Amino acid sequence: MKINRTNDFELIAKLNKYVHDLHIKLYPEQFKEYNFEEMKAFFESITDIEEFVFLLLEENEQPLGYAWIELREYPDSPFKKAYKSVYVHQISISENQGKKGYGSRLMDEICNIARTNGINKIELDYWCDNEIAKRFYKKNGFVKYREFVYKDI
């Protein structure tokens, strides 16, 4: 298994289908149907942003997943102290490839990137009904420190 940085927006768009389809299944009222051309255009528009890092996970030269992370720097304000974090936007593992340690390997690499950049916090969010993500992040030592709520009117 190997993990490398990539800017291959077409491959990222293809690998995104797995996580996007899960989101559609859980929240059909929130998510559009997966459209490869739109995803490809979106990822093409952001792959050159310096703060974004895309990690490609491969096994035997076969792409099986990716992580999209962002190196963030929060300034000091009257309310909060300045800090840096690695924000995990997405982790997507190919269909039928779950529970093989691929997500954990990506998370290990994300931790290494954080350490290399002098960052000691990794942040992320996930949809409440995504039990797979909830268990995965709990297993990897993440704790809740803030909740995001909404009300439809």
TrEMBL record:
One of its GO terms (molecular function) is acyltransferase activity, transferring groups other than amino-acyl groups. PROSITE patterns: GNAT (PS51186). Gene3D superfamilies: 3.40.630.30. Pfam families: Acetyltransf_1. Residues 10-153 form the N-acetyltransferase domain. This is N-acetyltransferase domain-containing protein. It comes from Heyndrickxia sporothermodurans.
